[in-house]
Amino acid sequence: MKEYIDLLRTMVRTPSLSFEEEAVAGEICKALERFGIDYRLQRGNIVSVNRHFCPSKPTLALDTHIDTVPAAAGYSGNPFDPGMDDGIIRGLGSNDDGGSVVSMIAAFRHFYEMPLPINLMLVLTREEECSGPDGARWLYSPDGLFPMPDWVIVGEPTGMRAATSERGLLVLDAKAHGVSAHAATGEGVNALYAAMDDIAKLRAHRFTRISPLMGQVRLSVTQIAAGSAHNVIPDLCTFVVDIRPTEQYSCEEILSELQALCSSELHARNLHNRSSATRPGSPLLAAAHATGRETFSSPTTSDWMRIGCDAIKMGPGDSKRSHKADEYLETRELAEAIEVYIKYIEAFCGIINDKTNLYGNTVE
Predict the structure, then answer these.
(1) Could you tell me where the DSSP H helices lie in 231-330?
(2) Above 60 in pLDDT, residue 360?
(3) Which terminal residue of the chain, N or C, has fewer Cβ atoms less than 10 Å from its own Cβ?
(4) pTM for the whole structure
(5) How many CA atoms does the CB half-sphere of 77 hold within 13 Å?
(6) How many whole angstroms separate alpha carbon 350 and alpha carbon 345?
(7) CB 137 within 8 A of CB 272
(8) Radius of gyration over every alpha carbon of the chain, rounded to an integer in angstroms
(9) Comparing C-alpha atoms, which of 174, 153, 158, 157 is closest to residue 219?
(10) Alpha carbon of 305 to those of 43, 262, 278, 300, 308: distances in Å?
(11) What value, to the nearest 5°, has the Cα angle with vertex 33 and ends 27 and 37?
């Protein structure tokens, strides 16, 4: 465990904000070299395949991200000081997502030289926290240069519970227009009132398709701005709508449905952050049940929304610690994650072996 704890501490000491991951990628690559693992750097992402990689076999990828958000205000110490406590690793990125990075590297290393019924791939991405263009969005696109996996385990802080679905994210910037006038004249068209009318419609709206996994689409108006002076009727009011889709709707469908309700102009910041769900009957689900993993629906987004194949989300730590001051990961959580990943992959290989034995070369 010492070398994995040391690697996580090194990662915390190395600032790795989105778009600035070069230094931490370098430290991770040094560790892979020490472990005897070959890898490729692709636009700052780190990709490795097991020693016995065979193109005719299906592939399971371990995917997690190496970037962090900026340090939150209120840290009681230096956010880049992991400390030397034997039982805890502190600092920015220790929980989100350094614990997943290190435990996935350890599990990948465990199987690296073994012949398996599947290929195993390690994918460490950049720009996850900001949905950047050169991270998973590029890697899992037709322009990406690595062999596309058939299944993915997405590493995020879940307490090693297996998330079988996660909500997407759709952010809308809205503009309500009016006509400016002096407030004393009773003239003009108040854009703020127009926005309030639309906000009332949005609050009252219910999407009819209900997800059996996640329930209803969630919608919140989170920001509003209007006016230049107390005595001027505002001719423009802007507001922001935060929407958490389920797998029942595409982002395009939601935008179209809400625009039909509102007189305000609605503009999506992007339409890529879709909801995700593990495919029914997936061997990923079977392996979760075989290893006693509790399953749940995750309210947070991850690289999963950029992955086109079957996936599940599972990693050490607690998402409630993420993006907050005094982030930390307990060393026992890191050790447990390594053990769980290894047992999970063993169970997954057994399930694939059974299917191969039954159906020849067909793997569902």
Answers:
(1) 251-261, 283-290
(2) no
(3) N
(4) 0.85
(5) 12
(6) 9
(7) yes
(8) 23
(9) 174
(10) 20, 28, 11, 11, 8
(11) 120
- Residue 2 phi/psi, 5-degree rounding, is -55, -40
DSSP string, 14-37: S--BTT--HHHHHHHHHHHHHTT-
Say if residues 326 and 75 touch (Cβ distance below 8 Å).
yes
- The mean-pLDDT minimum among 3-7, 26-30, 274-278 falls in 274-278
Element (H, E) at 223: strand 218-226
Q: Which amino acid is at 247?
A: E
Distance of alpha carbon 241 from its chain centroid, rounded? 20
Cβ count within 10 A of residue 256: 12
Indicate the pLDDT class of residue 299, thresholds 50, 70 and 90: confident
Name the burial class of residue 77, with classes exposed (0-12), middle (13-18) and buried (19+) by CB atoms within 10 angstroms of its CB.
exposed
pLDDT for 301? 87
Sign of CA pseudo-dihedral 318, 319, 325, 329: positive
In whole angstroms, what is the distance from residue 342 CA to residue 339 CA? 5
How confident is the model over 56-113, as pLDDT tens digits?
A: 999 999 999 999 999 999 999 999 999 998 899 999 999 999 999 999 999 999 999 9
Provide the 10 A C-beta neighbour count for residue 180. 15
Residues 261 and 203 sit within 8 Å (Cβ to Cβ): no
